[in-house]
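Recall from the previous lesson that a structure prediction takes nothing but the amino acid sequence as input. Here we apply that procedure to Rrf2 family transcriptional regulator from Gilvimarinus algae. The sequence below is the only information supplied.
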Amino acid sequence: MKTDSRLSGVLHILLHMAEFDEPLTSEALAQMMCTNPVVVRRLLGALRKEGLVSSEKGHGGGWRLAKDLRKVSLYDVYRALEHPKIFAIGNRNETSGCLVERAVNHVMGESFEAAEALLLQRFKEVSLADMSAHVHEHWAEKPDCTKAGQSHQ
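The prediction returns the following tokens.
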């Protein structure tokens, strides 16, 4: 079952960006993330539309954060990515004529809705600044991982 890692990936990128005063190129960010610059541009392009990041072309250009980390929640980033599906599991058949399967669908549907509501509420409560603080709490474990050109997994 394939999972959607865009939210995790873009949060990772944003926290790296927070460590730099200058703009970072898609290539530098991609190298940090062990991915392709096109992936970085696609992810950050969605955030640019929502005003979370900005970009400048040309020599000395690149991507930078457009908002204070304290004013950006995980929910803001999730919403900018056009609400990726939260759960990878679902009902076997949405329009079954079987009473048993309809009962299963009903209970699972209610459960998924309740779980998603709790998760999205939590996303609204956590800011990028909270996540950045966590990075800095554990900085001594791997202090060089945010330098341009450094990659890690």
